[in-house]
Each structure stands twice: as C-alpha cells, then as structure tokens.
Specification:
Layout lengths: L2 E5 L8 H10 L4 E7 L11 H9 L4 E7 L7 H7 L3 E5 L6 H10 L3 E6 L17 E5 L14 H15 L4 E5 L7 H7 L3 E4 L1 H4 L4 H8 L4
Parallel strand pairs: 1-2, 1-8, 2-3, 3-4, 4-5, 5-6, 6-7, 7-8
Helix pairs in contact: 2-3
The structure holds D-xylitol-5-phosphate and zinc ion.
The site of D-xylitol-5-phosphate has 23 residues, from β2, β8 and α7.
Length: 216
C-alpha cells in the first residue's frame, strides 16, 4: 500500500495547524518534518519548537528528517518533541549503530537517509537494523527542486537488496515528486512518497492522494 508523507517545509507557516489538517484530511499518512542546521546543509528550516508544535497538531505518524551534523545531540530531543520515526543522515555520522541504538532507547522507529551522491551499498551492512531508508532525490535541504532522474537506479538497487536479504524496511523517496512522476516511483518499489510542493500547492489534496494511491 502506497503511503503519502507531507513535508511541511512547503507549508504556509503562518497557518501551520490549518495546513497540517488539510494534509491529514486529504488522506496523507505521515507528517514529514525537515530539520536543518545550516552546517550539514546550507539552509535553516525548523527546529525543536516548530517540530513540537507540528507533532501536537496531528494524529498522523510524524517523521523527523534530521539533516544535521552530530545527530546524536538531538535524537532524544526530537523523540521528546513527539516524532515517531527519526531519520539520521548516513553522511553525518561514523557511528550508525550508535544512532540506531539512541533512537531505539528513545522508544522510536529508526531510519537512515542518504544524500543523492551516497551509494546504496554504503548502508548495506546495517539495513537489517533500520525500519526505514529514505533516499533524498534532490539537492539536500531545499524544497521545490526537480527530481534527479539518476535516483531511479538507486531505488531499484535498494529494492533488490531488500528482496535479496529478505528484509522488510520501508523505502521512502524525498524530493522533486510531481503528480506526473510520483506514481512511477511506487511502481519501482517505493512504499512512501515524501512531498512538499506537490501536496501543499495542490488545490485538492484529497483528489491528488486518491489518484496517486490508485483509488480513482
Ligand atoms: C529536501 C527535503 C524535502 C523537501 C521536498 O532535502 O528533505 O523533504 O521538503 O520538497 P519538494 O517535494 O518540494 O521537492
Ligand atoms: Zn525531507
């Protein structure tokens, strides 16, 4: 079953509750919170205050996408803020097993995210330990960009690895999805589509979500 994850980076922050409710009532399954530190990526998006408020605003699953250096310093804090799944970046740590341990100790689901330039094989040795793998499919840290077509091959490689290893982690793609290209990613084997612009700019989220899920 395809799931839709709404990235609030593209929301109107003056009306955040309304925007999140619009996604929930539109049939989205997950709220995606993009956290940056101006260091791991050259952008400042939102931190703990906004994340905590956003988590209180919905019953949807909440994913915290930590695009930050030293994720270990913030895992517990985002867990306390209400995230259900915490995604650290493989490139931000030399100790993925420690990150996964901290996330589990916080009682949350653990995910790893990959930059477009990072090969899938670099995480092959710990795929068994995560609940989710997120492939970033645009230049990391910014909304509203175009999908990098070469990322399709990474999705296919990850789907094959999952099958070969007999694993069941969730596969997400994040960035550059449009009503025209999104469905094809699910057909490659993606479970969850993370989208900002596509969802928040849609005049009819319910109709779009139904169409992407193949319900109409
Ligand atoms: C990019 C962020 C995405 C971003 C996607 O690094 O992680 O979540 O908000 O935005 P769109 O869907 O507009 O490409
Ligand atoms: Zn993201």
């Amino acid at each position: 079953m395809l799931a839709l994850s709404a990235s609030i980076l593209s929301a109107d922050f003056l009306r955040l509750q309304e925007e999140i409710t619009r996604m929930e009532q539109g049939g989205c399954d997950v709220l995606h919170i993009d956290v940056t530190d101006g260091h791991f990526v050259p952008n400042l998006t939102m931190g703990l205050c906004v994340a905590e408020a956003a988590c209180r605003a919905t019953k949807m699953r909440k994913d915290a996408h930590l695009m930050i250096s030293r994720p270990q310093d913030f895992i517990k804090k985002f867990a306390d803020a209400g995230a259900d799944l915490i995604l650290f970046h493989h490139e931000a740590t030399s100790h993925p097993f420690e990150m996964i341990k901290y996330i589990r100790e916080s009682g949350k689901m653990a995910g790893v995210a990959l930059d477009p330039a990072t090969p899938v094989r670099s995480i092959a040795h710990y795929l068994h330990a995560v609940d989710t793998v997120l492939l970033v499919t645009v230049c990391v840290g910014f909304g509203g960009q175009s999908y990098i077509d070469e990322m399709d091959a990474k999705v296919e490689e990850l789907v094959s690895l999952r099958r070969e290893k007999g694993l069941h982690f969730e596969i997400q793609v994040d960035g550059g999805l449009t009503p025209e290209n999104a469905r094809a990613k699910h057909e490659l084997g993606v479970d969850t589509l993370v989208a900002g612009s596509m969802l928040f700019q849609s005049p009819d989220v319910r109709q779009l979500v139904r169409q992407l899920k193949g319900e109409c």
